[in-house]
Amino acid sequence: MFMIDYKISEFFYKKLMDRLDIVYTIDIISYLIGLYFISYIVFFVNFGYIFLFIISTTITYLLKLIFNRKRPYYFFDKRFAILVYENHSFPSEHTIIAILSFIITGNILALITPILRIITLKHWLSDAIFTIILSFVFYYFFSSIINFYGLFNSLINILK
């Protein structure tokens, strides 16, 4: 799998090695997409999803510390490193947020973020694939807790 990861990252590196302005712009876009979806979901869909985002990104961050996998740019060009933790590629917090946003809203725009993170050498393809699976696990496990919490609050409001 590492050879496939490496070849894909090498392809994007060769395309963007002299265009760091594009890399930085793409990075900003991926951050803005994530912020948009989190804000939209929390304020307009269901505030309870804030707990899903907090729990899943916390677990993802802890997994990053455990695995400590180097990002693709480490093997090609460290100038690609902007707004990231240096050696924490796996799993992808941006992909967790993007896939959870897609599951909740059904908006395919959310799916752009994992692709952008691979293009800008922030993540390997295998990081994104595993994180997509992890996102579904988080959603199905924690959404039942969030739904229970919402049901619990509804019952309390009815009893008042």
Automatic annotation (TrEMBL):
Residues 49-109 form the Phosphatidic acid phosphatase type 2/haloperoxidase domain. InterPro entries: PAP2/HPO, PAP2/HPO_sf. The keyword Lyase does not apply. This is Membrane-associated phospholipid phosphatase. Coiled coil: none annotated. SUPFAM superfamilies: Acid phosphatase/Vanadium-dependent haloperoxidase. Pfam families: PAP2 (PF01569). It comes from the Archaea. The keyword DNA-binding does not apply. The chain crosses the membrane at residues 21-43, 49-67, 96-116, 128-152. Keywords: Membrane, Transmembrane, Transmembrane helix.
